[in-house]
Amino acid sequence: MTYVKSHLEDFIENLYTNISITSPEQLDIELIARRLNIEVGYSHNKSKCAEIGGIMMILLNENVSRTEQWQEFAHEVCHLLRHTGNQTELPFPFVQLQEWQANTFALHFCIPTFMLQKLDLPFHKQLAITEVVQTFGVEYSFAEERLELYEIQMMGVKYGHTPSLL
């Protein structure tokens, strides 16, 4: 059976391929930001993004770990590339939807399927999670959640169903 990628997985693979990011070693905030023409800064405040006058900017919280910054960067990239408008002016349910989308995007952006598929992950779940943590520079719980999504997608392939929300 053939693994069928979701639209999000295709979007992220195309995005990375278009900016010549093809391996986990290249998953670097500054490199990706430069290639996507995103200005990145650091502050003591919560991470956030804005687009002003056609210039995309992300401010990352300098008080969190590098792995958290990477995950927050991915979350903010989703808002810049896939959402428009100011969340403070949106109805709360729509903000919740955008946050869910950005969280899901971050899982796939930090651990892209096309890179994940190239790994020969151990069968033991904790060892597989640890390898993903080390390979992609993410937190353990983040890697665990991503592998659970990947496993659900793989079960869909095995049993003939493809989840459309992943």
UniProtKB/TrEMBL annotation:
Pfam families: Peptidase_M78. InterPro entries: IrrE_HExxH. Residues 25-148 form the IrrE N-terminal-like domain. It comes from the Bacteria. This is IrrE N-terminal-like domain-containing protein. It comes from Domibacillus iocasae.
